[in-house]
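Good morning,

Attaching, inline, the backbone tokens for the sequence recovery test we're adding to the shared suite. The designed sequence is right after.
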């Protein structure tokens, strides 16, 4: 059975105590920190950049960090985020004219390579670059804001991506990002998702630790059910 990773999106965290917030969710059992970099151009919102990532690393936060870049142009930002401590960098195909080259830049900078697919975009976008990918992130909301409604069509896309991944040798993780709440966890795990990106459902709760524990339990339940 594959490991399922919990990936809290810090977009909904309290930025005045960011290091502590991240430490708390990691202590409670989260696996990968999800870092949403937005530019008010590719998406209509503005968040944080490499300097913030660098200070998170210095806190210190040693866990893997997936930097989800929603910025255009994107190529020049990749080395900056890599240097600041990104473990993986996930970009959107519409943020570059030359997707194949951009994916190479991520790898050349020593990071795992992620590609994000917006709700309206066909998963066929991965066909000519699939061998370069470590992670496919399916957006289950339109990018830009936390706490939006989960788009159910994502399940169809997970199925399609899974089929493509199964047809090649390489291990590629499937991540789902946006609007994920408790009720989505079992169906997502059954569909074959490996990484659950969850923002507001974790951080908008008074006790983010207990929410992580609840999610972990639900993952355990899934494993038990599927073994039977
Ligand atoms: C949306 C971001 C997501 C977002 C998820 O553009 O990419 O990572 O923070 O937050 P929730 O779980 O609140 O939808
Ligand atoms: Zn994200």
């Amino acid at each position: 059975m594959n490991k399922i990773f919990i990936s809290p999106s810090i977009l909904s965290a309290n930025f005045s105590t960011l290091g502590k917030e991240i430490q708390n969710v990691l202590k409670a059992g989260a696996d990968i920190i999800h870092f949403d970099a937005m530019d008010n151009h590719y998406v209509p919102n503005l968040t944080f950049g490499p300097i913030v990532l660098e200070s998170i690393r210095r806190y210190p936060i040693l866990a893997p960090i997936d930097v989800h870049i929603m910025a255009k142009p994107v190529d020049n930002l990749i080395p900056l985020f890599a240097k600041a401590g990104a473990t993986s960098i996930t970009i959107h195909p519409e943020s570059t004219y030359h997707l194949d080259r951009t994916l190479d830049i991520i790898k050349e900078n020593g990071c795992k390579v992620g590609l994000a697919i917006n709700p309206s975009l066909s998963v066929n976008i991965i066909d000519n670059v699939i061998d370069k990918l470590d992670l496919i992130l399916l957006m289950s909301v339109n990018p830009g804001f936390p706490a939006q409604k989960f788009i159910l069509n994502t399940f169809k896309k997970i199925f399609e991506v899974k089929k493509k991944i199964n047809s090649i040798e390489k291990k590629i993780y499937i991540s789902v990002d946006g609007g994920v709440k408790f009720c989505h966890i079992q169906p997502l795990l059954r569909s074959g998702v490996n990484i659950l990106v969850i923002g507001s459902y974790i951080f908008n709760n008074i006790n983010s630790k207990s929410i992580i524990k609840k999610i972990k339990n639900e993952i355990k339940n899934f494993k038990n059910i599927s073994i039977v």
